[in-house]
Input
Amino acid sequence: MKQIEELVNWFHGKEKVIVALSGGVDSALVAYAAQKALGRQAIAVTADYKTLSQEELESAKTVCKEIGIRHMIIEYNELDNPNFVKNDQNRCFHCRTELAEHLLRLSKTEKINLIVDGTNLDDLTEYRPGIIALKKNGVQNPLVESRFTKSDVRKIAREVGLSIHDKPSNSCLASRIPWGNTVTAEKLARIEKSEMMIKQLFGVRQVRVRDFGNSANIEVGKDEIIFLNDEKKMSALKEYMNQFGFDTVLVDPSGYRPGKLNVITD
Output
């Protein structure tokens, strides 16, 4: 348990902290450590910015109850931000810049000088402009400074009893839309509904519905692709997704891989 002690110790000497909590395991472990170190002086804050799925929002609420940390939800609409909606390769930068602005505003109201998130060492090896935006706004990374990789996070989260220790990684619904294609409320809604239906029909845990306009590509974990071989269920799924304007529905045989849409479409 040495690693978790190091993470808890990271917060010692701090007076108050806001933990940006998404509903995933990384920020949950940070919130756990913050609560252990600071008790009521630690606040977990989840942003409901309309591109976060309802499933992730519920996950955030559940894990905060488990931890016993004070939980606040701030609401705003990223679709009001033209820089975000145009969906270029800096979409995540604009997203996280806006998030940071809201967190900084809240920190002033709550008289808190420290804001942290769940960035881990593995995140630094990928193209993550959102991390740059948060860092520019002073958000700190306890997992990075405590040398936590993603596997470390899952291992320690399991050891301390967090129910989401093996929860598949997720990202905002806008990440399903290729760069260069405008983000709209209609696209986000049909992506979320389609992914929920796939989980219900096939029992898969990791799923992405990539929105290419009239067509959709379904990605699930490589070990779960076999579950999609049920022709009767697949026929029902395609009929369901057709009503949202997906005329063509395909399953990606290579399975889910992060960052697969990091390309600009014509």
Summary: The chain has a mean pLDDT of 94.
